Each structure stands twice: as structure tokens, then as C-alpha cells.
UniProtKB/TrEMBL annotation:
Alphabetized Pfam families for the sequence: PadR
Organism in which the protein naturally occurs: Cellulomonas carbonis T26
Protein name, as recorded: PadR family transcriptional regulator
Domain Transcription regulator PadR N-terminal as annotated: residue spans: 24-95
């Protein structure tokens, strides 16, 4: 049953996979952090629980693409943690991806707007062309 708490939303997996990289880059723009804390921030932002089997492979792909730096840091009361931070290429990719995602999200919102409310006389006609 849905709740008003955005951290408990369960979004379709294909939606999450589509937006996860840009969301991870955005969280890391605030500064270096480790995987668990990153997952908490994503949940607090409304993505719901991002399982480790989804998050850590995404972090590895971003690292391999040269978008993240990784540093092991000693733990305060336990084992060391792997901290992730953006590279210059990661910051540039965040800007590109955020712009593209915003355009895509706006387009899809306009496309499906009338379906979510039943009717929407203000929705643009479907022309097969992007809005101008």
C-alpha cells in the first residue's frame, strides 16, 4: 500500500535503472560519500530503497567510465569504506545528463498527462515531433 513517505516508494525497476546514473551523479555533486549513505540519500529523495545489487554495479560502471574516483577510508568503528566522488568528467556528464533528462521527463509528462487525470484539454496533440 502506498504511503506519503517518498523514501518508501517502489518504482518500476526499468524506471529506476533509467534514472539511477544521473541521480547518483547528482548526489555525489554534494561531496564524496560511501555506498550505503548514497542509497539512503536516494531513498530520501524519493527513489525508494535502491538495493545493493542495483546500486553497486551502477557505481562500478560510473567508475569504469571515468566519472567517479574511488578512495578507501578507514572506518571509525568498523571496517574501511569505499568513498565515491565525482571526477571533472563526472561533473560534465551530470550537467549533460541532467539537461537531457529534464527534457525527456518534460516530454513524457506532456505525453501521458491526459492519461493520469482522465482528460486534459491543455495537453498538446500528439504529433510525433518534440515540442518547440
Amino acid at each position: 500500500m502506498p504511503t506519503d513517505d517518498p523514501s518508501t516508494h517502489e518504482w518500476p525497476g526499468d524506471w529506476l535503472r533509467g534514472v539511477l546514473a544521473v541521480c547518483v551523479l547528482r548526489v555525489l555533486a554534494d561531496g564524496p560519500t560511501y555506498g550505503y549513505a548514497l542509497g539512503v540519500r536516494l531513498a530520501e529523495a524519493g527513489l525508494g530503497t535502491v538495493k545493493g545489487g542495483t546500486l553497486y554495479p551502477a557505481l562500478t560502471r560510473l567508475e569504469q567510465a571515468g566519472l567517479l574516483d574511488v578512495e578507501w577510508r578507514a572506518g571509525e568503528a568498523g571496517p574501511g569504506r569505499k568513498y565515491y566522488s565525482l571526477t571533472d568528467a563526472g561533473r560534465a556528464e551530470l550537467r549533460r545528463s541532467a539537461t537531457r533528462w529534464a527534457r525527456f521527463a518534460g516530454l513524457t509528462t506532456r505525453l501521458v498527462a491526459d492519461a493520469s487525470t482522465g482528460t486534459d484539454d491543455d495537453a498538446p496533440a500528439l504529433t510525433g515531433r518534440p515540442p518547440t
